[in-house]
Design brief:
The chain contains 5 helices and 8 strands, in the order βββαββαααββαβ. It is an alpha+beta fold and 180 residues long. The protein folds into 2 domains: 4-91, 2-Layer Sandwich (Ribosomal Protein S8, Chain: A, domain 1), CATH 3.30.1370; 98-179, Fe-S cluster assembly (FSCA) (GMP Synthetase, Chain A, domain 3). It is globular.
Amino acid sequence: MLFVQDVDLTPNPQALKFILNERLLQFESRHFPDKNSAQDDPLAKRIFEIEGVVTAFYMDRFITVEKDKDSGWGPIQKKLVGIIKEFDKSLIPEEKGLENLEKHTSELLKQINSVIDSKVRPALANDGGGLQILGIEGFTVNIRYQGACGSCPSAIQGTLMAIENLLRKDVHPAIEVVAA
């Protein structure tokens, strides 16, 4: 049975990270910036039924929920814990295979993903967020923050610069990182 083991604060005051007892996804992350984007995902759709929820993000063993500034956490937490407890994990849409991603990825993008996977995503996940690489044009990497990081001022400012510096050091000195 799926249940919430712990709830962690995130650097984003409007987001909480709900740590689960079981894995939801093996390698993907799922970000839902609004209710409409969640229509094809039964878990996210249920989360958006909670009044005050504005974004949902999940991966591995956690769900991060962002609320609007006028809503209180008490009712949201109580409803979310109930949804998780009664949710059938088998309803989560199947993950796409890594093999297809590997075939269509350039060597530079593979290097970038390797650095992001080992040094950036774990830190962001620790804070209830994630990062999606949208693409690369030349040496400009387009990213999108997910979960708690999506609207957090520190992610948008300092983390972006730190990621760019890391990629310049570990991959190529001409890399620029732009957030969508």
